[in-house]
Each structure stands twice: as structure tokens, then as C-alpha cells.
From TrEMBL:
Pfam families: ALO, FAD_binding_4. SUPFAM superfamilies: FAD-binding/transporter-associated domain-like. GO terms for cellular component: membrane. GO terms for molecular function: D-arabinono-1,4-lactone oxidase activity; FAD binding. Residues 14-180 form the FAD-binding PCMH-type domain. PANTHER family: D-ARABINONO-1,4-LACTONE OXIDASE (PTHR43762:SF1), L-GULONOLACTONE OXIDASE (PTHR43762). Signal peptide: none annotated. This is Decaprenylphospho-beta-D-ribofuranose 2-oxidase. It comes from Litoreibacter janthinus. The keyword Nucleotide-binding does not apply. It comes from the Bacteria. The keyword Flavoprotein applies. InterPro entries: ALO_C (IPR007173), FAD-bd_PCMH (IPR016166), FAD-bd_PCMH-like_sf (IPR036318), FAD-bd_PCMH_sub2 (IPR016169), FAD_lactone_oxidase-like (IPR010031), Oxid_FAD_bind_N (IPR006094). Keywords: FAD, Flavoprotein, Oxidoreductase.
Amino acid sequence: MIWNTLNYSGWGRVHQATSQVARPERISSLSAVQANDPAPAIGMCRSYGDSCLNDGKSVVDMTRMDRLLGFDPDTGVLHVEAGARIGDLARRFAPDGWLPAVMPGTGFATIGGCIAHDVHGKNHHGAGSFGQHVTEITLMNGGKLATVSPSKNAKLFRATIGGMGQTGIIVAAKIKLLPCKGDIITVTERRIDTFDQFLEALDLSQSTYTVGWIDATARGDALGRGVLEEAETGYGLVPDAKSARSVPVNAPGWLLSSPVVRLFNALYFRRIPERGRTSVKPITEFFFPLDKLLQWNKLYGKRGFHQFQCVVPVSEGPVLRAMLDKIAHSGLASPLAVLKRMGPGRAGLMSFPMEGYTLAVDFPNRGRVEMLIAELEEITEKAGGRVYLAKDATLDAAHLPKMYPDVAKFAKIAKEQDPDGHYETDQTRRLNIRSQA
């Protein structure tokens, strides 16, 4: 196996790394690499912070191991290698009436990444997290394969889901797809004028897929205004999905200056008629709206951006109002801000979801943004919530035990599986996760 030098970053581009990388195509090649030089896996590097980074050390790029190994149309169980991308699976199986049960906001996420971060989607209130639909995982540790499931080595299974790759390399998995009505989706959009109305609308929604865009620059009586999208799959004719375009260069700083973002958000809010509107789209345009603009992270300029995402319990929903007020007055928000309702479903010891409301906001990497995020993290902890580690690049390690009460159990299993720390990453070292055992 050939090792090459790789300079790379997470999707936020704030932190960089240089690693030696191997790109195996077969289990035999992967096993040889891991037996001689165990190293953590990476996929498409769509986690935002330093979760996928291993600066000065080795990584294994799993994206060439992306084969479909089997599908049972009677049960909907798909056996697939970890490098397969979730968007490709959606496009392949939706015409036949099946969809991955849970999909994150980008179709470029790999199956291994979806498991390692126990991702959630626009249907968490009904379907739970990705890991709840995983029936089996094939792991490799030091060149040796092991199969884990809810009934076979269940503790290791729960540590692997949401475990950031700390229990070994995810080689393949069996995931249960859910029946869908087809490869198009009907989306209803309506304006929401206030934050309290937004929480009420999310609570009352009966739709399979629900997501809210928030104007994170709005203040006063308009604080928390936005657009609620509710959607259902179906069959029918719809224009072909638009061809993806690319952002060729880093955008200038003024593009996301406070006045420009406020103007854009006001126009984006008013693009929806007061009576609302309903449209029919290809499924990928609803589930992965930003994928049609390749390298959209360059819009934040060469210094990159942070995404802060938290979840707080239902009883603490008003805390998010205080966060939005702080964000609006900071003048640091970008147009990308999302509010969703989460159900109780989570599959792993380190899984992010909890029943409540999740808020995600992007911030250009400038000014006092890291100080603002630290304040938001403090508010989150005091509210009994947690920060999403797939998006994190700044969290103080002292917050981790309160946000993730199972971290000690997880760290113990990770150390048992990897006593020499071969699978640690920049993020797990920054957060001192292994020391929690």
C-alpha cells in the first residue's frame, strides 16, 4: 500500500492538517495497512471542525471502499461498505421505493461518517438517529475484523455509533432502509413571524420531514422569524435536478458583512408569499440543498467558518431565544441558520440527539466569533444541552462530561479497543476524551 502526503481540513476550513494517507480499495489492502500501521479512518471530510483531522500522523481514506454488498427487498436491509455516500444511495434506491431512513444535510457524507457521528436529519422527530437503523457493523482493529450488532457485543456497538471512529475502522454496515413514496418530494413553505410561533409550529407539525430556516440577524419583534418547510415523498414528474456548480475561488470578506447578510435574509424571508407556497422537487434538492453548489464553503473566504450547533431539552426551548438575541446583536451570523425539533432517539453513548430543539448557525471565522461561540456553549451546558461534535472546533473539554454523561463509559471501551491510541484524532486529543475513562 502506497502512503502519500495529504494536506486537508474539515469542511469549515478553520483547522488544517498534514497526514500520511493510504487509500485501500479492498479489505485485504485495508487489513495489511492496519496490521502494520493502525490509523483512524476519514471519508469525505464533511465534518466541520477537527473531527477528521490527525495532524502529523497517518489516516486511512475509505472513499474507495464504496461497494453495495447486498440488498434484501423484503426487509429493506442494505449491506454496504463504509465509503459509500448517502446521496448516491438515495438516488439509487428512491425510484424503487426505498430511502435511507435518516439523511444529514449533505449527500456527500459516507456511511462510515454517518455511523461515526450518529447523524440526524429532517425527520429526527419521527425516525430518530441514523444509528437506530443500523443492524450490524463490521469493524477492523489492528487488521482484525469483528462484527458487532445490538445483540452481539452490544456495548462495543453502542460505543461505535457516534464514537468518532475511536473503536476501530468501520469497514461496512447493514442499514435498514425505509419505504418511501417515490423519488420526488412535495415541500410546503410558510413564513413564521416570531420565535414562539416557530417552536409551536415545530411541535404541531405532523409532516415526515420538517426543518426551519431562521433569520439569525432579526431583532426585536422579528427575533426568531423564519421559514418552516414541511415535506413528504411521492411519485410524479418533476424537472431534472439542477446541475451542480462550483465556487471557484474564496469569496471576498464583504460578501458576508453584516449589512449584506441582513439584506439577504430579509429578501430570503419575503421570497415566500404570506399565504405560503407548495412545490415539487427532486428529493436531493430538499435533503441536500447546498450540494448543488460545490465547494460552497469557499463563500466564507480563505479563513473559513465555524458552525455552532446545539440541542437543548424541550423545557429549555426559550433559552434559544436568548442565544438568537446574542447572535443577532453580534453582527457575526451568516445566512445559514437552522432550527429543528428532535425526538428522543439516539443510538450511541456519544450520540448528539436528545428530545428538544436544535439550533445550528454558521459564522465566518473573524472578529470575536470564537468568544461568541464559547458564550453559546456555556449557555447550552447550563440549559442541560449539548454541542454537536461533528460540527465542533472550539468546545472546552471541561464541558464534555456534563454535555455527554456517558463519556466515561465510552472512553473506557475506546481504551480497551485501542490502548495505544492509534485511532485518536485532533478532536479527541483536544477534548481529552481518553482521560475520561
